[in-house]
Amino acid sequence: MRKIITGTLxxxxxxxxxxDIAPVEEQVVAPVVAEVSNGWEHKLAIYGWAASFDGxxxxxxxxxxxxxxxxxxIDKLDGVFMGAYELRxxxxxxxxxxxxxxxxxxxxxxxxxxxxxxxxTVAQEFDAWVLSFYGGYNVIDTGSAKLxxxxxxxxxxxxxxxxxDLPVLAPIPLSPSFEAYDALIxxxxxxxxxxxxxxxxxxxxxAGDSDLTWQAQASIGYRFGWGDVLATYRYLHYEKDDLKLxxxxxxxxxxVGVVFHF
Length: 262
Fold this sequence. Notes:
Elements lengths: L1 H16 L23 E9 L2 E8 L7 E2 L5 E16 L2 E22 L2 E26 L3 E21 L6 E3 L2 E16 L4 E12 L3 E12 L4 E12 L6 E16 L1
Antiparallel strand pairs: 1-4, 1-13, 2-3, 2-13, 4-5, 5-6, 6-7, 7-8, 7-9, 9-10, 10-11, 11-12, 12-13
């Protein structure tokens, strides 16, 4: 009788327990896979540049030795455009940089002749294009600091409309021009000061049609939700000793720009 009562109570307990005593199924947790973006990254930068010019220009004047400018001949910028486009995927990148400058100015070049002094007035208008193209490969990326090795080429075109006014002759018009293609190698990178402020930089050096060309620029940037604002100082140098027009050419000055990411 005791066995019957005990069995009845056990059966009732099991029946009322229901699903609470069902076998526990093993719960499978799906692994969380972090999404890694392998898409292309684009940057478009547009700048305003307060450029200054220094250079040594050499003019051949009929019946005289060559007249050499002492630099600093630009009085004003008539037109300027500067922009850059960067394309990046993983460790590889491509950068195109464009500069156009329309400049004008004049100077008086004085020469000692015998017991006297001859003053030559030179009026000039310049149109300059500087196109730089680079391929890059990232070698350092710590999250807050990045460094790319870059290599590429730069095209430099300078057209000059000059008029030389001698005291004893009618003005002599000149329209010399200069083009150069140069191979480049350099570095490009940035490091973060904090989550908003950062410092990008670039340096390259090369030669080819020119004896030497190099440029350096460094910026301080601030990130906004829509893009970045940069304040930059840039210096660009050319040397060409065996050309009658240009012996050396320097463009430098501060620039301010905006960078759009997409």
